[in-house]
Amino acid sequence: MTDLDNLIQTLALVPHPEGGYYKETYRSTDSIQLASPFDGARNYSTCIYYLLTSETFSAFHRIEQDEIWHFYQGATIDLHLIHPDGRHELIEIGHDLGMGQVPQYVVPAGVWFAAEVAALDAHALVGCTVSPGFDFKDFELANRADLNATFPDHSEVISRLTRC
């Protein structure tokens, strides 16, 4: 068994629809009733383990909430954001603060984002906290053609980090 297989098994991770592996580790027991853009109640907060490898990526998607990424171990993650105004931002999530990496980053609600491991033959383990809590009703996976049509200046990264 490889170290990666052991990590997946030990943390009981399963494939995530956007790519990589995950396990929900926390969902608050209390919830709050929310107005638009949400459809009903959401838990106050949720948290997952999220594992990416250099063989997979987190495809461009967006959610209705802020999402906080917390770096735990492994290789640097390149987090790509495309803001509603069309600006592309690259955030390096990792432990090398001297090289401009950050161990924690907040993706603002409604921003398209995708992630990939920066090194070959590597993996990275992070945590993602969402508040109000994550619900798949708030999740939108990007369509490559639509995202390219909206943000043609970023077609290379969009084409590389979308699946359909």
From TrEMBL:
Q: Give the species.
A: Reichenbachiella agariperforans
Pfam assignment, any one: Cupin_5
Q: What is the lineage of its organism?
A: Bacteria, Pseudomonadati, Bacteroidota, Cytophagia, Cytophagales
Checking CDD domains in the record gives: cupin_YML079wp
Protein name (database record): DUF985 domain-containing protein
Concerning InterPro entries, the annotation shows:
Cupin_DUF985, RmlC-like_jellyroll, RmlC_Cupin_sf, YML079W-like
Domain DUF985: where? Answer: 6-142
